[in-house]
Amino acid sequence: SAASADLRAQRDQLIVELYRTGMTQMEIARIAGVDQSVVSRRVCRDRRSRIAAAMELVPPDAPPTVQDGTTKGEMR
Known about the structure:
The chain has a single domain, classed as Arc Repressor Mutant, subunit A. The chain is 63% helix and 0% strand. Helix 1 runs antiparallel to helix 2. The radius of gyration is 18 Å and the shape is elongated.
């Protein structure tokens, strides 16, 4: 139902916020009343979405950098 989806979304947001404060997945699981694997999946999903969002900020014609491993050691 829509209500349970809203509750899940709120729980997921809480999980991510607590993780960002430095709490362990086990601590968060106890607080949220879920298994640690639920916390792990939610944290991973958040990390993937943040990486994807950051990648969208890089223009497609941006030159490769040493940090992204796409050059052969050239200096910028």
